[in-house]
Inverse folding.
């Protein structure tokens, strides 16, 4: 009987980690549905981005209020979770505050004291976040794509954090051994008097309940991540590493098409020149993207990493002028479609069965795609180096090259370029007429 709690703890821990691992496997399988991209270039710059953007949150703090609060929650949450290590050892081996036994009192006190201060800072930050979302109603959290689950998800995580931090402090305040040692109880010592009338046995029960709820809450949180925008806690790092390191305005032209255009524009070009040799230069089986499988693995990783913060949409000139486009929705749609494809594969023994749907049309409309000015503001604004524009371009490429479905204005312009070598409807011979006027 003595070991029953430890056995229950071990089963819970293994089941939670196992379920999380199975979801991570699914996530990687889904991302691998995209085509591979070579990201072996610019390694020092990529690592620098990871340190500055993902770890240092340098783009996030460009909006100081939310950036600063997010940094507190991020640092607090990560650091406080170091304490989970002690909980796991205690839970598995039946010890009580193993750190207090093994570490010098002052060091243990310093660690737990810091965690307690951070827990309070996290509570304050999370409360401000909740007020911004639900009382002030910051505009970027209330566009059409933020209804239903995305809206609830944003709040659920805040409640989660309040509960976890609260349980951590209650656990410390009711732990008589910890309070008696009087080291590190910088915040909980002020909460301890709330429980002063309780019997020792009752205090012990409250402490145990808070301890169990705290660790169970953390394990639920771990498994909740896969279903939440908070997956970015883990994915922001690889996503920033694989982010764009070439100049932001540079588009990934198709080499085969570029060669054709150069041939067309250059009267001296040799039409019998050797065909492209590298795999990259070969004419692709399909131009652009109509579904998630046509996108790259980095674009699919982008979709899973999106934090739904809406900074991209709040800077998008198309969105700001009332067009239907929202770069955040582009990312959310891509992720939703990818999840749908993943579930389809799971239900059909590892094979994708045509479901008559695709990203283009069923999730993202032509109207959204053509509203984009390709200004790159969304890419610049994204705190985790997501590139919604690249997906828009790939889908437009599909519309133009596979379906000849560009808007009339564009078709006219492209015809003019083809016939006149310029976007205007004037014959090349008439170009210098203006000087005779
Ligand atoms: S690139 Fe397109 S989607 Fe991005 S901000 Fe500019 S107009 Fe909006
Ligand atoms: S793409 Fe980036 S900026 Fe836009 S909502 Fe997602 S995380 Fe935020």
């Amino acid at each position: 009987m003595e070991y029953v709690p430890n056995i229950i703890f071990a089963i819970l821990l293994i089941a939670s980690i196992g379920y999380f691992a199975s979801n991570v496997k699914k996530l990687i399988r889904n991302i691998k549905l995209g085509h591979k991209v070579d990201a072996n270039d610019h390694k020092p710059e990529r690592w620098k981005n990871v340190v500055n953007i993902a770890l240092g949150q340098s783009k996030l703090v460009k909006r100081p209020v939310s950036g600063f609060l997010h940094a507190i929650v991020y640092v607090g949450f990560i650091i406080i979770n170091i304490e989970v290590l002690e909980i796991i050892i205690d839970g598995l081996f039946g010890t009580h505050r193993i750190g207090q036994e093994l570490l010098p009192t002052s060091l243990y006190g310093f660690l737990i004291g810091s965690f307690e201060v951070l827990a309070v800072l996290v509570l304050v930050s999370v409360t401000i976040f909740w007020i911004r979302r639900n009382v002030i109603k910051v505009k970027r959290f209330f566009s059409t794509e933020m209804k239903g689950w995305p809206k609830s998800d944003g709040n659920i995580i805040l409640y989660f954090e309040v509960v976890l931090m609260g349980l951590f402090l209650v656990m410390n305040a009711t732990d008589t051994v910890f309070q008696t040692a009087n080291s590190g109880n910088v915040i909980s010592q002020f909460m301890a008097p709330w429980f002063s009338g309780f019997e020792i046995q009752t205090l012990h029960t409250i402490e145990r309940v808070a301890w169990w709820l705290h660790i169970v809450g953390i394990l639920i949180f771990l498994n909740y991540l896969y279903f939440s925008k908070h997956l970015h806690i883990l994915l922001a790092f690889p996503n920033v590493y694989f982010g764009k390191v070439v100049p932001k305005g540079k588009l990934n032209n198709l080499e085969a098409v570029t060669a054709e255009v150069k041939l067309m524009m250059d009267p001296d070009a040799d039409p019998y020149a050797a065909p492209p040799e590298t795999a990259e230069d070969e004419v692709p089986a399909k131009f652009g993207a109509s579904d998630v499988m046509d996108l790259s693995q980095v674009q699919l990783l982008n979709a899973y990493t999106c934090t739904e913060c809406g900074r991209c949409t709040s800077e998008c000139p198309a969105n700001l002028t009332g067009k239907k486009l929202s770069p955040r929705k582009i990312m959310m749609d891509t992720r939703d479609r990818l999840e749908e494809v993943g579930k389809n594969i799971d239900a059909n023994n590892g094979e994708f069965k045509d479901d008559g749907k695709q990203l283009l049309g069923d999730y993202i409309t032509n109207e959204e795609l053509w509203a984009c000015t390709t200004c790159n503001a969304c890419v610049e604004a994204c705190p985790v180096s997501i590139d919604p524009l690249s997906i828009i371009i790939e889908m437009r490429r599909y519309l133009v090259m596979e379906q000849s479905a560009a808007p009339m204005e564009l078709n006219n312009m492209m015809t003019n370029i083809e016939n006149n070598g310029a976007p205007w409807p004037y014959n090349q011979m008439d170009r210098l007429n203006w000087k005779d006027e």
Observations:
- The chain has two domains: 4-31+63-231, 255-428.
